[in-house]
Automatic annotation (TrEMBL):
The lineage of its organism: Bacteria, Candidatus Liptoniibacteriota. Residues 6-128 form the Glycosyltransferase 2-like domain. It comes from Candidatus Liptonbacteria bacterium RIFOXYD1_FULL_36_11. This is Glycosyltransferase 2-like domain-containing protein. InterPro entries: Glyco_trans_2-like (IPR001173), Nucleotide-diphossugar_trans (IPR029044). It holds the Pfam family Glycos_transf_2.
Length: 287
């Protein structure tokens, strides 16, 4: 059996955080091999020197490896963006279990051993994911983000709760659904999960696997309008609802007393919610 996990880190000028990302991967403990690929887009900051440092440590057997072995590969060259960088890594990945980890995020200790255990125990699943932390660099707060199980229709109509840094997929599923859509730059993970769920099964397990960093230059902080535009493309592509679930969630949070009704009158709250979504679900695109 192939006991290799491939992690791909796309990066461009992330010298501030990439070392923590690299360390979080190389320090994983478990009965597996790590195939680590760093796809740098031609950084002009200190990123390349940091990447080279760990390359030398691995080559010289100076890094305290805590798994069966580490294959460390990297390059620094101009690419066509994040999806292109990840796809280049996917094409040479040797692991049966794969994930990408952005260069401002990091894995939690023992994350790979936890997901590898579920991968071994559930051989008929294609997508594995757990929970994660959101680290807010604006105020230093760190909170847990809970994922939830779901299928294609649930995630299409209600939005997905798959925490990308804590999501892993099999190499076999790539042969069925293809690589990431390089025409997308923001919501490409959502599109990828939906393609997987159309032909395969997902497995959610309540373990905290990774930390997502929210900071001024992160896409999530600065490119929300672009996320909504690409989500709309996805809804049109798969026949999703015309009204974006995220818009509904934002609107709900603006209504005074919503949380109070949820806490004190949950039956009424859930009834109103059910009626509301039954109406919304009739307003969908034709695919």
């Amino acid at each position: 059996m192939n006991k290799t996990i491939t992690i791909i880190t796309p990066s461009y000028n992330q010298g501030l955080y990439i070392e923590e990302t690299i360390q979080s991967v190389l320090s994983q403990v478990g009965n597996f091999y790590i195939d680590y690929i760093i796809a740098d887009g031609g950084s002009t900051d200190q990123s390349v020197s940091i990447i080279k440092k760990y390359d030398q440590l691995i080559k010289n057997n100076s890094y305290p490896t805590k798994c069966l072995g580490i294959k460390y590969r990297w390059w620094s060259k101009k690419d066509r963006g994040q999806t292109d960088a990840i796809n280049q890594g996917l094409k040479i990945a040797t692991g049966n279990l794969i994930s990408w980890l952005n260069s401002d995020d990091y894995l939690e200790p023992n994350a790979l051993s936890k997901v590898f255990k579920e991968f071994i125990n559930h051989p008929n699943y294609s997508l594995f994911y757990g929970d994660g932390y959101l680290l807010n660099q604006f105020n230093g707060n760190k909170k847990i983000l809970k994922a939830r199980p779901g299928n294609f229709q649930q995630f299409l109509k209600r939005g997905h709760d798959i925490f990308q840094p804590a999501a892993f997929f099999t190499k076999n599923i790539i042969t069925k659904v293809g690589f990431l859509d390089q025409n997308m730059h923001y919501a490409f993970d959502y599109d990828f999960w939906l393609r997987i769920l159309k032909v395969g099964h997902s497995y959610y397990f309540p373990e905290t696997l990774a930390t997502f960093r929210l900071w001024p230059n992160s896409k999530t902080s600065s490119k929300q309008n672009e996320f909504f535009k690409e989500r709309k493309q996805i809804f049109k592509k798969y026949g999703g609802n015309i009204i974006d679930p995220k818009t509904i969630y934002q609107f709900r949070n603006m209504i005074p007393g919503t949380n109070l009704i949820y806490l004190r009158l949950p039956t009424i709250y859930n009834l109103i919610k059910k009626i509301f979504y039954s109406i919304i679900d009739h307003l969908h695109y034709r695919n």
